[in-house]
Request: fold
Amino acid sequence: VSDSYFPVGPGLGMEENFLSLDDILMSQEKLPGRAESALPRLAVLLGQGAGSAESVPEGSKLEIPLWLAKGLHDSKRRIISVELPKIYKEAWRTVFSADANVVDLHKMGPYYYGFGSQLLNFENPENPEIAQTDSVCFLQTFIARFRRIMDSSQNAYNEDTSALVARLDELERALFQVGQKGLNDFQCWEKGQASQITASSLVQNYGKRKLTEVDG
Amino acid sequence: ERNQADVSEAKSGRTDLIFLIRFRHCCLLRNQRCLLAYLYDRLLRIRALRWEYGSVLPNTIQFHMSAEEVEWFNQYKKSLATYMRSVGGEEGLDLTQDIKPPKSLYIEVRCLRDYGEFEIDDGTTVLLKKNSQHFLPRWKCEQLIRQGVLEHVLS
Reply:
């Protein structure tokens, strides 16, 4: 958008930013979970039953969004327990260690890194080592992919970048865009256009979109 | 209200309803969060408008703002003006000017759409018609360029 608009960015690590639109979208992603006890009257809401008084039986599998999982989770696991989605588990970890660049992270869940950091919030007392190895693997994946992102963002000038960007998750896309902006600004400076006053992009967008008058 | 009814039921002994209450509470908090983030983002954009567009907003944009947002914009304008007056000596410093370092006092501009008459400091008026080119002082044109009326032409 334009130079003066600074939206609230996503949170780093295990904390989300309350007002960040990116974090809100990210926490909408679903997790597999299990009901630890019978949940009365929730059947309809969670898509499991038809009657309004039905309860979700104990032990049934649920897919719930992250925000709900965080709200209903507590360390004694009386209501809900969550499991790691497939992509963060063993099988995928070997794929990542083989060649991290190949994986289409956007398809796997567009907020791979953000969501993964949030999962550390759910302590899994049975497997404390898993958390440790998870975070290590995570980091390795990121490091492996980062080099390529950086290279491509700095070298693709005025080209159609949709093919490059298609397999990146949201965090990587943001990094890519920052790289591109730097590149464009530099080229602009080289051409001597840095001192040119430009119409604000906000204004240009308002002009293009026909703002219709609302009746009443 | 549904939550209230359940709370009173829970207090009177049905402890398994706690989950339901908690669930609804989560949903309420979620809705609240989404609303707050939306409103806050709108404010951030309105603030950007002051810097990008100037202190008078076009009617089409104002139409889409709520009364509270217009009020907020006016307050923000006032705070900004007070601050600008206090910085930089007697006359104050207009921070919204010269966002990019200027290279010359006068610039060449081309008009992108009909605007009408425009008066410069020494009293002469210039008629801004589509595609006419002029050589004008930078500080007068800057706002019009940002608004998309004029285009800065580099020689």
About this structure: Chain A has eight helices and three strands. Chain A has a mean pLDDT of 68. The radius of gyration of chain A is 22 Å. Chain A touches chain B at residues 1-8, 18-21, 24, 37-42, 45, 67-68, 71-72, 79, 192-204, 206-207, 211, 213-214 (CB under 8 Å).
